[in-house]
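Why does residue order matter? Because the sequence determines the fold. Keep that principle in mind as you read this record.
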Amino acid sequence: MHAAERDQPDVQAERDAFQAEVAALDPERLVFVDESGVLTNMVRLYARAPEGQRAQGSAPAGRWQRLTVLGALGCKGVAAAMTIAAATDTAIFLAFIDKVLIPELQQSRPDAIVVMDNLSAHKAPAVRQRLEAAGLRLLYLPRYSPDLNPIEPMWSKLKTSLSAVAARSLQALEAALPQALNRITPNDATGYFR
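Structure:
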């Protein structure tokens, strides 16, 4: 065993501790926050065609653009969302917290427990300070545990919806996003939480 492996806390122990802590919490209070990129070159992965015919489709060649979606998911559905045509850094994440997440949660879930992964932008001290100043609690997922985050299947459904639209510009992608977010139902969110 290498020295680095001995120095790192056991990931399974972190996962077990997180699951025990979350099991003792009211799931109505949990709000999972994450971000995902959607692209202007997304296409359906599967299609149907009449028997004997080929399903037609194409992906654009060359230049494509990315839109980052920052989102929050509660057990009853999407709690907040924001888009930006840039990668998430601390300044962008703080803008999401200040302008979108905190105002929404103060109105709808003032006792929320915000759960997020260990992205460096999420770990900035200002993130905890702002959430706690708003009366919200912060909890981090264990390392290497996207399977414990119910927002991950939400992103999958969102991307499937947007792939069907085949938006080829940031404006078209942005215009298609509200309808794709509306397709994430309370039943979906409940299933993701289970």
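The chain is about 40% helix and 20% strand.
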